[in-house]
Structures are given as C-alpha cells and as structure tokens.
Amino acid sequence: MIKRITWLFLLICILQTVGAQSGNGVPYPKVEKGYIELKDGRILRGQYIYSPEFDKIRIMAANESFVLDASEVVRITKRKPKADRVGVESDFEEDIAPIKNYFIFSELGILPGNPDNINKMPLIFHTSVNYKFLEKLSAGAGVGVEFYKETYLPVTINGIYRFNNNRVAPFAMLQAGYQIPVEGSRTKVANVYPAGYYVDYSSSFWPGPSVSYDMDLKAKGGILLNPSLGIMWQTRSNVSFTFSAGYRFHRLRYHNKEKAYDLNVDYNRLSLKLGLIF
After folding, report:
1. Which end of the chain offers a freer environment for a tag, N or C, measured as fewer CB atoms within 10 Å?
2. Closest CA to 105 of 139, 129, 89, 88
C-alpha cells in the first residue's frame, strides 16, 4: 500500500513539472513547415521552430539553419505568399531548383493529318542536348527518328524560350533541320498513258488508259520546320514533363537518276508531343 502511494505521489510531481514547463497551458514549440516572410523581403520555405520563450525562431531552409529574432518575421503561411513589393526577390521564389545550364530534352509525338492521307499519323521521336545561355532562353542540337513511307533520321537545331520560372510554365520552341533517309525508298511513280498510246513494256496498243509503276525513286531527304507552344511542369526532383502542340512543315525529295525525274512531297501537319527534360 505504501509503495502504491509513493508511486502515485511521484507521478503527480512529474505531471506538475511538465505542466509548469509548458507555460501554464501554452503549447510547447514544435517543428513545423511553411513559408516564412521576413521584414527584409525574403520569403523562405522550410522548417521552423520557436524558442520556449517564443522570442527567437530557428529556420531550416535551403540546406541552411539559422536563428533570428521572432520580431523579424512578418508572417508564416502554409501557402506561398505573393511578394507585394517591386524588386523583392525570394530565396525560395519558385519552390523549385533552377534549370541546369546543360539539359537533355526528349520528345515523343505524332503528326496528325488529313484522314485521306496515306500516312495519317506518322510517329516521331527527338532528343537534344541544350544549353541555357540566358535565364529563360536555351538552344541546342539533336537527332531523332521519324517514320513515313521510309524511316528518316532528323538532324535538328532548336531554341526554347520559357516564359517564367514557375513550377508550371508555358514555353515556345522553334525546331529546324534536315531529314536524312536511313533506308531504301518505298516510293514509286505511276505513269498514266492515254488511250491508244504505245507502251514499250506491253508491245501493243492498249484500248484504254494504262498505268506503269516502273519508275523507282531514291529518297533524298529534305528540310523541316516545327514551331510549337507548350506547357512545362517541373517536379521536385528537377525533372520536367512537357506537352506541346505546333505546326510541322517538311519537304521530302525523291530522285530517279536514269530518267532525270524529281519529286517533292510536302507535309503540312499538326504536331502533338510529350516530352521529358532532365
């Protein structure tokens, strides 16, 4: 019985001590997260904790930890406050890491066209190495693969302009280059002869119009141009996903050396592409 009374007395003493340390009902400071706006105009995103007397605050942001007077804090919010002073920059302005000076931009897409076209929706893939030489402007060069009647290797240069540095940002891109054929041509030319015309391969007069598919053409490649607009979404791991839509023009050239025949095939298509920047 005496032991039970002794343990009960000790428990009451401990609870009273904890209650006294908590400041008579005032919650003890704990680590929290949020946006801390300071009097000097900075907006820091990170963790913070007040001192027991609530006169100091420790801020842990951008891999740094420092202590300030609590009077230096204007406000703390869970959502990022907008800067209301011109020329004020935040240490965590966009809550994302800046884009690296060198980055790889890969895109996979299709070129929708008229449903009456033979190639209704060619598949395209491009990847490029880019360099950011201005805050929002980058340029680079790359290669890819595109599938029409033949398979082509596009060699391109491109410029990318990002309209802002937010996590979700619109961008404009201009791509230009040359299509290099990587396989033999599958394109033939149909020669239509009028009725009664003497055709060598038949050695006779044909009573009606006739068609000859005996002219093989060699793929020579051609130029391409693709301006587009899109949206770029950057993750916390500094990898960005993109979606873009634009206009694609390219001209594929074909040639028959024996008959000195040239054929140009123009593509005017809508380009729809998904991309990855890392």
Report:
1. N
2. 129
